[in-house]
Amino acid sequence: MLDIKFIRENKDIVQAGAKKKHVDINIEQLIALDDERLKQLKEVEELRGEVNRVSNDIARDQDETLKIQLIEEMRAVKNEIKTKEEKLKIIIEEWQQLMLRVPNVPDISVPDGKSDEENLEVKGWGDKPVFDFEPKDHIEIMNKLKMVDFERGTKVHGFRGYFLTNDGVRLSFAVWNYTMDFFSSKGFSPIIPPILDRKENFLGTGFLPQGEEDLYKTQDNDYLAGTAEVPLMGMHMGEILEKNILPLKYLGFSPCYRREAGSHGKDVKGLIRVHEFYKLEQVILCEASHETSVKFLEELNRNTEEFIESLGISYHTVINCGGDLGLGQVKKYDIELWIPKENKYREISSTSYYHDFQTRRLGIRYKDENGKMQYAHSLNATAIATPRILVSLVENFQQADGSVLIPEVLQKYMGGKNSIK
RNA sequence: GGAGGGUUCGCAUAGAGGUCUAGUGCGCACGCUUGGAAAGCGUGUAUGGAGAAAUCCAUCAGGAGUCCGAAUCUCCUACCCUCCGCCA
Fold first, then answer.
1. Is the CB of A71 under 7 A from strand B?
2. Which residues of A are part of a known binding site?
3. Which of A107, A154, A158, A408 has its CA 20 to 30 A from that of A296?
């Protein structure tokens, strides 16, 4: 959510930002509606003031006849208020719906473009593996090494179902433990959050009202979150934080649930796109400063790059174009890992910042040095997601004999083994 | 699942239909006092909105209602506490 004052004062910028994100919204129309809202609000407030004043008179006045007369008068005013309030309520509801749809303004450095195909590569790292044999895809490799069981996975869960088994499980735990150690050393506090969450958390983070179809909903009207970002941001909902505890850096670990409603027919096989997976997520709440947000965006992205580098997998980093940004995102980097068999890069991580878009919806504030209330800024980034990362690990480090080499940094978490056979 | 008690300004509390325009204590800020400090005394100290300002409006968990008037009465929802039941 943007500040209506900001929208009013910068309507051209906001409108241009929406266009860059390919979001269809008419800011002029919103402002006209806001004019009407303010006009009606003023009228209602004036009448309420009158009732308040006269009600006090009624309480003080001793003259019974006058009392009765005033009460009669106020009855009439009250009816007038009721009519006006109903009108105002309709306007406010429409206004709120519109406000929730106004996208945050993308940064000037965000490239134009409609979809992820127009994302801009800003960095490449590492050598792509060269094989002197025909490389296999992760499905074949993992099946053969009994790391996964897709057939029974679909039997039990349905489409996109999987069992991880044996070294598939051990490798997952190794990744999780290594990730914990790696990010803890960078000052992140580990958190296991509730992932079955109430609706407000999703509205606050911007996953709702749009995107309902991609969420699993329970019979209690709660939702399963697709990322720990949702509960970690909700954690401080409605709070006034002490300035000196900022920045808050959290490393959330959680299962993630996604209906993948919009991606039928995409990645229908294997572990790339599944309904249920695990993710370690970096989340930062910091002071309300653009420079600080930008600094942490670079830091978060660099953390994950370093992590991938330590595994030794070739990657590139892209800036997402306007059309590939979420409603609240100002700027986003994706890190994509090399998948040999597919001969292309696939997304493993996503880093973005929001200014106060989320914290305004969630009511996460602090008092600055001048005693002024500020909405904190928020950022989040993937640390690592399993089982997706296993795809890159087994495909990049596969050997001619069908075995898979384990990156050095993971070996101690695999009982010292250097390969999976 | 059942019964009862709660949710008020950063914290703790008062408040039971009309001087509640939410009091008090703690904390915090400023001032007086002092060689300096503490104590003491005084003043101030919730959030959001409208307005150039004076000021006005809203908010006592959230929502709906009764009333000229609601923190206070009624109903619904959420959460917390105690007890009973069930349970890894």
1. yes
2. 227-229, 258-260, 274-277, 281, 347-350, 380, 382
3. A408
Query: What are the structure tokens assigned to A388, written together?
Result: 């997706």
Phi, psi of A416 (to 5 degrees): 85, 0
DSSP, residue by residue, A15-52: HHHHHHTT----HHHHHHHHHHHHHHHHHHHHHHHHHH
Q: pLDDT, tens digit, for every residue of A84-131?
A: 888 888 898 889 889 989 999 999 999 999 999 999 999 999 999 999
Known catalytic membership, residue A273: yes
Read off the pTM: 0.91
Nucleotides of B strand lying within 7 Å of any protein CB atom: 10, 18-19, 21, 47-51, 56-58, 68-69
Distance A403 CA to B87 C1' (A): 46
Residue A106 in any domain: the answer is no
Please report whether residue A329 resides in a domain: yes
ipTM score above 0.95? no
Query: Which stretch of DSSP H or E encloses residue A210?
Result: none
A109 is known as an active-site residue: no
How many distinct structural domains can be found in chain A?
Answer: 2
Q: Determine, yes or no, domain membership for A107.
A: no
- Domain's final residue, options A101, A136, A170: A101
| Strand A240-241 relative to strand A365-367, pairing | parallel
CATH number at residue A335: 3.30.930.10
Residue A53 carries which side chain, given as an amino acid letter? R
For the question of residue A258 being annotated catalytic, the response is yes
* Structural domain contains residue A42: yes
